[in-house]
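R.M. (postdoc): so does anyone remember the format we settled on? I'll just put the structure tokens first.
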């Protein structure tokens, strides 16, 4: 064993393989783990970290983020880096910023702004655009340093615009020669180091102009033609779809995998009015039984909207009395909403609305601090207002204007079925479904789910009465997510693997309430969320976070293509 640089002593090690916790030391040398067990006391100049009683786990591998713009201007990929994440994979959902001709820059920004709710002004101000091809984008990123490792996928939306121009944006069918060209670009991107290819087929994804994503109606021959070019180059495929015709759409997915031989993952969420996730899961399992490498990506809690006066949405947006003051600074807006006469009008105007998400107070909750992501239905705005014999809108207004208007209401949009997360538990237990969908870097004004990894450690591996074994949770969010995208050199604490290690006080670990920051380029806003209880985060053996705060070390790099422990 080479002389270690770091020894993490006497921690409760959960190594990512699914083995139960054990007390052990972890030694790291030259960025790799060299021993897990009892490390000799002759350590020379090694730094010794006392982890007695603390949880020691591999760094989390988050395979579904949208840091494609942020990586071009920011060294700190927060909020993910605050939650034990040491590797992020971006370029999901078919959106990103390469390849890109200068004439398409505005289009790609509008697409990202609309699909992922990232302020367009921040993207215009922050992205330096020193590339055109995907390989040039990777070359640009390779010169930069981060607090986590970064891997990229090539997005279908950008490729379609690059090849088809306005016809691509308008979702016209691709000609055979255009399909060949798109396949060539994707193959070259994967050869240059992209982890794979992603596309979107959901009507929920629209540009900031309200137009459907360019890839929404891409025909089967286009999708199959593109991924067939990956057969010799490698890479993975990621798809988000509405599955409105489940059999036909899943047939397209199977064909993509059969023609390319490449692994594919699908976003899976439960919509209460269209609870077909079980049928989708069965088709994924059937495909696996036929030897086709298809997995689902699932969330570790409800995918929930945060409603607030600083957020993109709040219940009063529909009220004329709110629109009259909507552009006022926050302090003045709060004062106006508290005025008795305007408050009465706001409550009356909202009470006249018939249903709809924005007035669904039976599914709307105070978020709390620490936040409650599995609220009891009896704590909803509607239920509480009924007990207090007042209008739900009046209670919502009171809560939204508290703390100077900085509070949030929580609306669990997907996965919260019959008032619980039981469906999420079923999904997390399933071997064919992987934790993902945290969307780090995205949904800046509406959703803050990059903390999914912390929810796994707290809600599922500690707090819920019928939770999940911690060794299962760690294996799934570390080793299995890494392997799913070809990063086999991380996610496990064993000799030869990357020295990406997290030390946490598991009993004290908890999420703080999300808050709105205005720290993006051009003063753009984004929701952020921290956690207490993370003691140390190491990336390739270098401590990047201590006590939840950045050390200033930037040990993260661009990851080019699949990795093995021999790399």
């Amino acid at each position: 064993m080479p002389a270690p640089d770091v020894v993490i002593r006497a921690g409760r090690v959960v190594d990512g393989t699914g083995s139960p916790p054990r007390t052990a030391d972890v030694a790291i040398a030259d960025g790799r783990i060299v021993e897990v067990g009892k490390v000799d006391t002759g350590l020379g100049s090694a730094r010794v970290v006392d982890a007695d009683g603390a949880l020691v786990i591999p760094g989390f591998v988050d395979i579904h983020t949208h840091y494609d713009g942020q990586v071009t201007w920011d060294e700190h990929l927060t909020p993910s880096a605050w939650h034990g994440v040491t590797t992020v994979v971006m370029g999901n959902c078919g959106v990103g910023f390469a390849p890109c001709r200068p004439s398409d820059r505005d289009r790609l920004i509008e697409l990202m702004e609309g699909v992922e709710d990232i302020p367009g002004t921040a993207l215009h101000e922050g992205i330096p655009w020193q590339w055109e091809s995907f390989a040039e984008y990777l070359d640009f990123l390779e010169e930069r340093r981060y607090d986590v490792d970064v891997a990229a996928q090539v997005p279908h939306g950008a490729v379609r615009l690059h090849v088809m121009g306005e016809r691509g944006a308008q979702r016209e069918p691709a000609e055979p020669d255009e399909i060949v060209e798109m396949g060539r670009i994707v193959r070259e991107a994967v050869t240059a180091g992209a982890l794979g290819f992603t596309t979107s087929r959901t009507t929920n994804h629209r540009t900031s102009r309200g137009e459907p994503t360019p890839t929404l109606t891409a025909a089967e021959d286009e999708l199959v033609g593109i991924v067939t070019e990956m057969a010799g180059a490698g890479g993975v495929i990621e798809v988000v779809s509405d599955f409105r015709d489940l059999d036909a759409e899943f047939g397209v997915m199977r064909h993509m995998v059969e023609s390319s031989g490449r692994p594919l993952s699908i976003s899976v969420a439960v919509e209460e009015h269209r609870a077909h996730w079980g049928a989708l899961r069965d088709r994924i399992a059937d495909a696996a039984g036929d030897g086709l490498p298809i997995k689902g990506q699932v969330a570790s809690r409800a995918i929930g909207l945060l409603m607030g006066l600083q957020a993109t949405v709040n219940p009063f947006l529909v009220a004329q009395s709110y629109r009259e003051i909507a552009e006022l600074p926050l302090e003045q807006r709060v004062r106006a909403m508290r005025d008795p006469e305007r408050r009465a009008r706001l409550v009356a105007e909202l009470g006249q609305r018939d249903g709809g998400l924005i007035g669904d107070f039976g599914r709307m909750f105070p978020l709390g601090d620490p936040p409650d992501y599995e609220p009891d239905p009896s704590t909803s705005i509607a239920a509480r207002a009924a007990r207090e014999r007042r209008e739900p809108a009046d209670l919502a207004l009171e809560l939204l204007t508290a703390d100077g208007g900085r509070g949030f209401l929580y609306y669990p949009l997907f996965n919260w079925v019959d008032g619980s997360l039981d469906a999420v538990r079923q999904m997390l237990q399933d071997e064919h479904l992987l934790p993902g969908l945290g969307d780090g870097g995205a949904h800046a004004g509406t959703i803050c789910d990059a903390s999914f990894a912390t929810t796994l450690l707290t809600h599922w591996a500690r707090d819920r009465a019928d939770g999940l074994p911690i060794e299962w949770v760690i294996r799934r969010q570390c080793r299995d997510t890494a392997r799913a995208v070809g990063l086999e050199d991380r996610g496990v604490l064993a000799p030869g693997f990357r020295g990406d290690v997290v030390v946490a006080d598991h009993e004290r670990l908890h999420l703080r309430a999300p808050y709105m920051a205005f720290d993006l380029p051009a003063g753009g806003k984004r929701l952020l969320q921290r956690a207490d209880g993370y003691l140390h985060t190491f990336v390739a053996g270098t401590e990047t976070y201590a006590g939840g705060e950045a050390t200033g070390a930037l040990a993260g790099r661009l990851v080019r293509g699949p990795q093995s422990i021999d790399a």
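R.M.: ...and that's the designed sequence above, right after the tokens. Also worth knowing: The chain has a mean pLDDT of 95. The radius of gyration is 24 Å.
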